[in-house]
Design goal:
The chain is mostly beta strands. The protein has 4 domains: 1-35; 36-114, Sandwich (Immunoglobulin-like), CATH 2.60.40.10; 115-401, YVTN repeat-like/Quinoprotein amine dehydrogenase (Methylamine Dehydrogenase, Chain H, 7 Propeller), CATH 2.130.10.10; 417-473, no CATH class. Helices cover 11% and strands 51% of the residues. The chain has 3 helices and 40 strands. The strands form 9 sheets. Strands 2, 3, 4, 6, 7, 30, 31, 32 and 33 form a 9-stranded antiparallel β-sheet that branches. The protein has a 4-stranded antiparallel β-sheet with strand order 9-36-35-34, with no helix packed on it. β11 and β12 form a beta hairpin.
Length: 476
């Protein structure tokens, strides 16, 4: 009997101990889950769309664990990688995020891609665009440097042909011509005094930083100056400098031999102050962020992001399709894959699609504006009603769901065009819809006015809502 009592007490103590252990383990698991759990809130731009959260494990979407809701979804999740999606009809936007850094308890995301349809701005091929809220400056297909101001008027601002230009801002930059380099300081152009003979230089590349610093290379030698000149040698390589990208406190270079293979042309070098960091990182194109904190390196059409200490902090796999990249003033990286425009936030470790061109027409250039409100993109022409398929046009993408009048989106489809075999019509749509019409000087503008009115009416556009600028064509 006494033995039974001792056994009963032992079992009771063991039971209490097991209960205590269970409680301890349960509390531990609860604390662990609490410390490794956060709330994701996903909101789409359209109240009629749906949003979803899907975990990503071992690089694969776990579709069986997808959670979805209409318009807004708040869900408590474990730390990890997730795909957030918003979809409505044929519109679809995804964003991949890593949750958990800094013990974040609330993560608000607004998926606004549905309102970021590319908006046509100019019906012609453009290169080296710089844009602000008051102007756009670019090189057109005729190698002319043009400016569109807030009155939507377009003007040629430099007398000669321009092959390229790099900008500190829309009013300050350095342009390249067959006869040398010119600085642009608020519309005042001055020939730069280079530290070498330009006409006999083997390979010349250059870049302009946001603070106006100018870097220019002659073969394997790099010089630093400003838009006023004053160049001094700061670096010499054992091989050719093939590309330069400049920030306010450092400069990135691609150094290698001149090869015909565009996928692999050299390796990355970073210069900051008097320090030089040579790497074995293969690069075909580079872009350093405005503050110099990150460098985007494209190789084999994929992008790797490196910190200023050359640690790789992000990778963007483009499956052989990434073609352009550009840093915004807000520190975000924009890049294109075919006709899709993406934005990557390095600080938040997330990438998401922000726009897509009609018919997936390829994006040829990316140009973020100086205020962080829009991204301008050069898009290859799709065949239009007049088979105007060559060249490109300039569009902009709203970054904050700003309202845009898409009634005039058809401009990019029907213009540029020649009507009646005599009236050349193109559009400028920076601040208001404007048609520029060149008419035969020996006939007058009336023949063109009727043709344009008739064409606009076919698309339900009233002539009263469009500004028309007529320019006579000289008679030979």
């Amino acid at each position: 009997m006494q033995r039974n009592n001792r056994l009963l007490k032992l079992l009771l103590r063991l039971g209490v101990f097991l209960v205590f252990i269970s409680i301890f383990v349960g509390v531990g698991i609860w604390i662990y889950d609490y410390l490794h759990t956060t709330t994701i809130t996903v909101i789409s731009a359209s109240s009629n769309s749906y949003v979803s959260i899907t975990p990503i494990k071992n690089g694969e979407l776990v579709s069986s664990e997808t959670i979805s809701a209409k318009h807004k979804l708040s869900e408590s999740v474990r730390f990890g990688t997730y795909q957030l999606a918003a979809f409505s009809g044929t519109d679809h936007l995804t964003r991949t995020v890593n949750i958990g850094s800094g013990g974040q308890k609330l993560f608000n995301l607004v998926l606004s891609g549905f309102s970021s349809t590319p908006y046509p701005v100019y019906g012609g091929s453009v290169e080296d665009v710089s844009a602000s809220s008051s102007s756009i400056v670019f090189i057109n297909s005729s190698s002319s440097l043009l400016s569109i101001n807030s009155n939507n008027s377009i003007n040629k601002i430099f007398g000669g042909a321009v092959s390229s230009i790099d900008w500190a801002s829309p009013t300050q930059g350095v342009l390249r011509t067959s006869g040398g380099f010119y600085s642009d300081n608020n519309g005042v152009f001055s020939l730069l005094n280079l530290p070498f003979k330009y006409s006999s230089a083997p390979v010349v590349n250059y870049a302009v930083a946001g603070n106006g610093a100018v870097f220019i290379s002659n073969g394997s030698v790099l010089y630093k100056g400003s838009i006023s000149g004053g160049f001094q040698k700061i670096y010499s390589s054992s091989n050719t400098i093939l590309q330069i990208s400049a920030s306010t406190n450092s400069v990135a270079l691609i150094i290698g031999s001149r090869k015909s293979n565009p996928d692999l042309v050299g390796t990355l070098t970073i210069i900051k102050g008097s320090g030089v960091t040579n790497t074995n990182i293969a690069a075909s194109s580079i872009g350093i962020s405005p503050n110099g904190n990150y460098t985007a390196v494209m190789s084999n059409y994929d992008i790797s992001i490196y910190s200023s200490s050359m640690d790789r902090v992000d990778e963007i796999a483009g499956n052989g399709s990434i073609s352009s990249l550009a840093w915004g003033t807000n520190g975000n990286l924009f890049y294109s894959s075919g006709g899709t425009l993406w934005q990557s936030s390095i600080s938040k470790n997330e990438s998401f699609q922000i726009s897509q061109t009609s018919g997936q027409s390829p994006i040829q250039g990316i140009y973020p504006d100086t205020e962080g409100n829009y991204v301008y993109i050069s898009v290859a022409n799709s065949p239009t009603i007049n088979n105007q398929a060559s060249g490109s046009q300039l569009y902009r993408v709203a970054l904050h769901a700003q309202p845009q009048n898409y009634n005039f989106g058809v401009f990019s489809v029907i213009f540029p065009q020649v009507l009646q075999g005599e009236c050349s019509v193109n559009y400028v749509n920076f601040t208001l819809p404007t048609l520029y019409i060149v008419y035969p000087g020996n006939v007058g503008q009336q023949i063109c006015t009727s043709s344009v009115d008739s064409l606009l009416a076919q698309y339900g556009i009233s002539q009263a809502g469009v500004t028309m600028v007529f320019q006579p064509q000289p008679v030979n």
